[in-house]
Amino acid sequence: MKTILTGIRANSELTLGNYLGALLPMVRLANQHSNEMNVNIFVPDLHSIIADVDGNLQKNIIRTIKYYIAAGLELNDNVHIYRQSYVPAHSELCWILNCVATMGEASRMTQYKEKSEGRESCNVGIFDYPILMAADILLYSAEYVPIGEDQFQHIELARNLAMRFNHRFQSEIFTVPVKTSEQVEFMGLSDGIRIRDLLNPEKKMSKSTASENSKIMFDDEPAKAAKKIMSATTDSLGKIKFDMFNQPGISNLLLIDALVMDSPLQDVVSTWAGETKYGDLKQKVANDVSNMLAEFQSRLSGITDQQVLELFEKGESYANNVANAKLFEAQKAFGLR
Ligand code: TRP
To answer: pTM of the predicted model, to two decimals?
Structure first.
């Protein structure tokens, strides 16, 4: 049985952009395939500690899984939910892959360059981040790793490390994940989904933007979220058209509505063709977003910590079995066993 694997870091509050662009597509994909594939959804808590953690990590780890469930993740025996740090094989294989990866390739990773640039000191974890991520993937022979486009470079690195390792030991120990172009295809997207900042639609919606009205957070009051949509920046062209280049604000609203309503973007666009009243579009999107948030938040509040901890326990027993078996093969190849 093939494996789909994904993880979202538990560090922070998520925006509507993270929800529509990452969480929801992943949940829909998982539901679509969990009859015939393993779906591994894990919390990369060891990746979280490369940044300052504020004493809320435990709470955030549990909340991350609640998010998936509140977003509609269907649980069955093929869906495995676990915490990275409860499966020690991740750290072990990371070390082994550290001895396969080169300084050059790790130094070329954009995320590392961005996070280290201009800083006096940068922890080694930031540098090693993609190697641990490769271990996360290779331990489970995952072919499909649905993820945001900012992480594509890390998938390519995981592929290279798997191929190099296999070649070095004339083995097929690691399954090579599919190319990022095929990952995108598997996700059913022509492109990564990028929800824009409501006030500055040229930019991506980001939790770190100072302005409250630029972004919608998961825990925003639905009415407050609706107001933010109503005050979104548009343009003065007076036509409702999907054109990210000339009308990024209007296009962003159309895209948001398509994702929230789970309708093809084309259908949403043609519904509005010929219409000129931006206020009507905003009203519709504001309604749909606030309904979605209300529903999401009510489902979220119904999930207990205990439920999540039980899922972890079950998932970690599965994950340790699979991961330890793969780790053993890698250790043996090097003569460690
Ligand atoms: N780096 C991913 C992110 O920031 C999280 C992650 C860690 C991950 N290990 C992974 C995602 C393995 C997929 C597979 O979003």
So the answer is: 0.90
